[in-house]
Amino acid sequence: MHEAAIVRSLLDLAFQAATKAGLSNVSSVNVMTGKIHHLVNEVLLLHFDLMKATYNGFERAVLHIEEKDVIIQCYACGQTKELDRPFFICPNCESPDTKLIAGDELHIISIEGSST
Amino acid sequence: MCPQDIKIMQRILTGNDQIAAEVRASLAGKGIACINLMSSPGSGKTTLLQKTATKLNKGMFVIEGDIYTTLDSERLQSAGIGVYQINTGPFGGDCHLEAAWIRSALNEIDLAGIDFLFIENIGNLVCPAEFDIGAHKNIVVLSVTEGEDKPLKYPLAFRNAQLCLISKVDLLPYLDLNLNELKQNIKRINPQLMMIEISSIIEKGLDDWINFIMACRQNAPEG
Ligand SMILES: Nc1nc2c(ncn2[C@@H]2O[C@H](COP(=O)(O)OP(=O)(O)OP(=O)(O)O)[C@@H](O)[C@H]2O)c(=O)[nH]1
Ligand SMILES: [Mg+2]
Ligand SMILES: [Zn+2]
């Protein structure tokens, strides 16, 4: 449900970057989203397509989403594990002393396009 | 036509995060502790704030987030608590509060004599968890009627909180809820998360809650 607000912030950042770089025709906006954020890709894409027309130069832009799995590192046994459930207990030794090393991303990576 | 690839590599919510950091610093500068309450609809947040006002011998103020109604604000006002209402309806019916709204609310609120600012976030466990609104402490309230599995379904809210209030524990005798399993699930999501069992009806756990609140102001507020 908060996908709309995220896409709005994303397009604001992308638009600033495009303006600064002099890109007048943006072809793609590339983002990375960690699975901990419960974002629904279809909803992100839908909002992106609805909102992009209001950003000059983004009329033909396509959103590319790279989803990141949740990965933790265990301080107790040192192992790095991918989690299929959001349990932040080490699947190997059951220590709760773990650190999230991937899956928390919510980043704009880059934009591609051309000037004129 | 010259194709370009512009690297940005920034958090998408960086704008919100910056405003949140400003709000947090500005409140801390005034000696005010800001506490954000997040939960599913109906977990007992407003009732708890009413009770809190009767126990806390300090200046408190509440920012109410609601999609449309002002019912919660009216309840608090009639209990003599200062309230500022944010209706997200006019902003497009959003399901969460953002830092910019708190910042503009603070421009209109007289904070003289206020020690604690509570923010009752919109009843929803998914979206509010994503947006830093400048609170010093984030509290997730989970009522015992919601079931053992909720922490697993909404992990981000539990990850980003510093306290979990397990509410309505007066109802436990009537429910088929395994409280230990619920707590274990909370620990799986956030092993460090502190928990307090509360009931506004039979006034259980309220002293621990008040102690937690008081400690928010003694300790230098943190992010
Ligand atoms: N049994 C029991 N009921 C409670 C308790 N606290 C609140 N309630 C009831 O739960 C219902 C919802 O309480 P509210 O305080 O409005 O909950 P809320 O979280 O503010 O609700 P929203 O703002 O609409 O999300 C009301 O009928 C309250 O009387 C409690 O400790 N025990
Ligand atoms: Mg309420
Ligand atoms: Zn381990």
Note the run of SSEs of chain B as H and E: EHEHEHEHEEHHEHEH
When the domains of chain A are counted, the total is: 1
**Element order of chain A: H for helix, E for strand:** HEHEEEEE
- Total separate domains of chain B: 1
Give the strand order, joined by hyphens, for the main sheet of chain B.
4-3-5-2-6-7-8
CATH superfamily of chain B: P-loop containing nucleotide triphosphate hydrolases
Uncertain regions of chain B: pLDDT < 50 for 5+ in a row? none
Give me the CATH fold name of chain B: Rossmann fold
Q: Report the major sheet of chain A.
A: 3 strands, mixed
Tally the helices of chain B: what do you get?
8
Distance between the termini of chain A: 35 Å
CATH fold-level label of chain A:
hypothetical protein PF0899 fold
Describe the structure.
The complex is a heterodimer of chains A (116) and B (223). The longest helix of chain A is centred in the N-terminal third of the chain and has 19 residues. Chain A has 116 residues and is an alpha+beta fold. Chain A has one domain: hypothetical protein PF0899 fold. In chain A, helix 1 crosses helix 2. Chain A contains two helices and six strands; from the N terminus they run H-E-H-E-E-E-E-E. With 223 residues, chain B is an alpha/beta fold. Chain B is 35% helix and 22% strand. Chain B has eight helices and eight strands. The radius of gyration of chain B is 18 Å and the shape is globular. The chains are: A alpha+beta (116), B alpha/beta (223).
